[in-house]
Predict the 3D structure of the following.
Amino acid sequence: MTMKISRRGFLQVGGFSFAVAMMLPRVAFAARNSLKSMRTGVQPGNKTRLVIETSSKPSYSLSYPENQLVVDIANMSADSSVKPTLASGTLVSELTQVQAGDHLHIVAKLRKPIAKLEKSQIMLLEPNGDNDYRLVFDFSASATTAQKIVESVTAAATTKTPPKKHIIIIDAGHGGKDPGCIGKGGTREKDVVLSVAKRLQSKLNDAGFKTYMTRRDDTYLKLAQRAEYAEQKKGDLFISLHANANPSRSVKGFSIYTLSEKASDEEAKKLAESENAADKIGVDGFTEFERDVRAALSSLQQHAVAEMSEEYANGCARAFRANKVEAQPGPSVRHAPFAVLRSTVPGALIELGHLSNSSEEKLLKNPDHQNRLVAAIVRSIKNYNFDV
């Protein structure tokens, strides 16, 4: 007796046909996501923060039954071993898991009703250090209709307070006796980044930000001085500009780095060592600072500030790609122990391109390309959520 499978997926045995799909076990085409942790906390402005950590990037939706926030995550099973960590003083009184077919509903029981969350109130953070993917929701109790009327009348009767100007610290890397890397054509990193920094300051000032530059001329500054300056000026965001070099002259493209005690890869580690060697300061230094400054510097390891830096870095990478700026092969956002980033001010170190690549060396000197880089950074800062 002959058997064969037709192009339509039927098993033909003699003169009979059978649907193969009915005879074979079901195949899972995607690995299941898993729940790692659930926690709440209190943010400035008496906001409640709900964080849901998952092993893979979650596909989710939200619904708002009475006095509840329900996060529906696809392709996930309930895990009774994951116990919620609930902080006092939040709107969340209880967190439970409810299985609904192939979806897991994480139900936050609320003490007061909330309004539908806006896009700006939701973050999806990439893995960082010991953390996996994190869904972050920030919300407050919604005002009743009567409260909204009172607030509206009160606001109309008082003079509006002008919105706060967010403070951006722009750090042009290297300078003075430290030229940074030098391209084959003689282009010095310290000159390129200073030019970009000045253009960036002008555009950010025009956009309504308050800006400070760590250096405006060919001055040498220690890395610790740059970090301390950001603290003194009470910066909301710290942007350190650099240009890269690579033993392989074919490598080109931008990359962005945030602070981590452990480098994300060997290349990030070597780059941090190279940048830190500019003034021979180790990332565990800063002993020349007063005790309160040292305490402030160490606080960058606090979870919230690290997450804010990560959020900005990912948004910056998206802005660069949107502005058609070529990325270095591999991850666009990496992590390493950069001394200049060791501050309580959220921030990132941006490698604008590679001077070791001859074509990119020419681009980095070109005013039009510098303006494109600046436009991408301005875009990333405008899109950054300063209020989280």
User: Anything to note?
Assistant: The chain has nine helices and 17 strands.
